[in-house]
Amino acid sequence: MPPTEAGKTKTLNQRIQPVANKGPQKVAHLASLVDLRFDHLIGRELGTAVLLKELARGGMAVVFIAYQKSLKRQIAVKILPKVLLSPLTGALFQQEAESAAILAHPNIVPIYEVGETEDLLFFTMQLVKGLSLQHHIELRRKHLLPSRRITPVQESVGIIMSCLDALGFAHDQDIIHRDMKPANVLIEQHTGRPMITDFGVARIARGSEISASMIVGTPMYMPPEQMRGAEADARADIYSLGIMLFELVAGRIPVPAFDSSRELLRMKLALKDRLFQQKASEMNPSAGPEMDRIILNATAFDPEKRYRSCREFIRDLDAYRSRHVQKQV
Predict the structure, then answer these.
(1) Of 12, 98, 154, 312, which shows the fewest CB atoms inside 10 Å?
(2) Residues 17, 155: one domain?
(3) Does residue 39 have an active-site annotation?
(4) pLDDT tens per residue across span 230-273
């Protein structure tokens, strides 16, 4: 049952209980998502939604499955407890909602409602029933048959083309995602449709509280200019999708071994265009040398040598796909 009005007025510090201390270096009162329990929020109403169960936790927020009473459907609710609020996390959270809310595209998870209570920031969005692209890649790697451990080339190209179409639309609205990676692409269970999520570190070129030069993103998929803190434009997203394409068609990203994210960042900046130890076609001969050229054009160290737009990237992938089908017939 939803809490009473009196219950709703309690602060998050009063209502959320830290997880028991698990070691001498653990600070019990230090607020983080790892430390906090949210089971008391089950049944609580936020806007038009009633929270049903926790779905996932990210770097700064927790996602719940909820029931939207007005339209009688399940949705997702992303919550940022104010006890974790800082000027940066608040701005990132608000920006994610605002960025995605203006992007009406079939391959972008839509935002329905943005709201705030005395203890929470939240927004509601479509509940995508399915797994992330990262989960799909990991499941394939564990397949008993070696031939099934890599995503088929045609399927890989289709996923990336859908993502490019969505990001091209976002770029036309002056929005750069800046954290494209397989974990931020959800694959709808019954349709196979890729849907991009998590615009939390997106840059809105028209003006944003988030610095364009802030170093944010995921090291493996982050372009070199973003690592250096330089301004990232649409070619940053193109680089990230090029890395994702390589991973899909080859099964893994062939870079030298590294022990930490910091080491990976240093290595990428030092090796530049010599980062990959193998070509995609060497790891998966069915990809062919034309795929190597496409990946190189997307992941060039120098942004000036990359595709200038998602449309250019799509054009080459579409031509590749047509020729690839003809070769298989």
Answers:
(1) 154
(2) no
(3) no
(4) 888 999 999 999 999 999 999 999 999 999 988 998 999 999 99
